[in-house]
């Protein structure tokens, strides 16, 4: 059983930003911060299966790809990396790239990496606040400047760069060609789906589920986090068990049932947890209000029951 106020690891990046407000007041001494990693406070605990981050982009990231589990394991890594992004804020011209504009052979992809023309072949799309972007392993992708986003991912150190905007950093041509699906994104982007008045499903992948929760001011809830679960506050605040959680802070739970007491401004948060499907009994409204009751047209949520814990997994990742 575990409930912890997540600690934060600060990661400097050449494409990062110095303005992290309102998400963090971390001291950076003028250095560009690219990522904030949420980590377990108990350093002796096994590594979680998932990694939750905030990314701050002032310049574009490298064009890159992550392998699937099979390829990662073939080169001695524990697992691949599928990820999803939730856009927290976006400049008017902000965009991300997911997939290529056309199908390439392996030889064509190698040539495009070698001569830099891959930069003109990625499929860019505009994004705005509250958009969701799903990036399955093997998808060539990039993140542009002017964004703050939350990322949930398989915990993995497998990232292969194809193009780096003139930065003097290694490209990983052989592994990128072998790992990439060199064409348009294989899957359409997910559409948000209301599960209840309070729960919105954003992504359900083979490795994790990402939801957004919206709780009314001063409402009271129970959360039954059987498997590894991360709660990230986006707006408002709440007391989760014995711990206060404010904007930009995260709570880790596993094999734990506890209360959520929402503050006077309400609560909007992301919930990310290991598994492939939404957990029906994850949340229970204790007030008898109709927040949290099933939305018309959606199947009813099963009665509240504590879920069973899932197995832990390991490995950590550093985004180029």
TrEMBL record:
Protein name: Mannose-6-phosphate isomerase
Location of region: Disordered: 290-320
Tagged with keyword Transport: no
Molecular function (Gene Ontology), one example: metal ion binding
Entry-linked SUPFAM superfamilies: RmlC-like cupins
Keyword Calcium: no
InterPro entries found in the cross-reference section: Carb_Metab_Reg_Kinase/Isom, RmlC-like_jellyroll, RmlC_Cupin_sf
Domain of life: Bacteria
Secretion signal span: none
Regions annotated as coiled coil: none
Database matches in CDD domains: cupin_PMI_type_I_N_bac
Swiss-Prot/TrEMBL keywords: Isomerase, Metal-binding, Zinc
């Amino acid at each position: 059983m575990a409930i912890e106020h997540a600690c934060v690891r600060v990661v400097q990046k050449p494409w990062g930003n110095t303005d992290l407000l309102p998400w963090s007041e971390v001291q950076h001494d003028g250095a560009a911060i690219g990522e904030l990693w949420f980590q377990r406070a108990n350093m002796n605990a096994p590594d979680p299966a998932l990694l939750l981050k905030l990314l701050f982009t002032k310049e574009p990231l490298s064009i890159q790809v992550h392998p699937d589990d099979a390829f990662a394991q073939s080169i001695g890594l524990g697992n691949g990396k599928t990820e999803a992004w939730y856009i927290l804020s976006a400049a008017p011209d902000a965009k991300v790239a997911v997939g290529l504009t056309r199908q390439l052979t392996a030889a064509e992809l190698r040539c495009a990496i070698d001569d830099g023309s891959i930069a003109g072949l990625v499929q860019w799309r505009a994004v705005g606040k509250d958009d969701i972007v799903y990036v399955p392993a093997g998808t060539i992708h990039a993140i542009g400047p002017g964004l703050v986003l939350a990322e949930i991912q398989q915990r993995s150190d497998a990232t292969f760069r194809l193009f780096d905007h003139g930065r003097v950093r290694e490209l990983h041509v052989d592994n990128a060609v072998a790992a990439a699906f060199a064409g348009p994104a294989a899957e359409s982007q997910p559409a948000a789906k209301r599960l209840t008045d309070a729960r919105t499903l954003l992504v359900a992948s083979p490795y994790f589920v990402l939801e957004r929760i919206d709780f009314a001011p001063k409402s009271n809830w129970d959360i039954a986090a059987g498997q590894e679960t991360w709660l990230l506050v986006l707006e408002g605040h709440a007391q989760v068990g014995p711990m206060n959680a404010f904007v930009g802070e995260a709570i880790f739970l596993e094999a734990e049932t506890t209360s959520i007491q929402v503050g006077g401004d309400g609560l909007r948060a992301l919930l990310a947890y290991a598994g492939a499907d939404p957990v029906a009994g994850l949340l229970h409204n204790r007030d008898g209000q109709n927040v949290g009751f099933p939305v018309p047209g959606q199947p009813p949520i099963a009665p509240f029951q504590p879920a069973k814990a899932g197995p832990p997994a390991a490995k950590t990742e550093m985004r180029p």
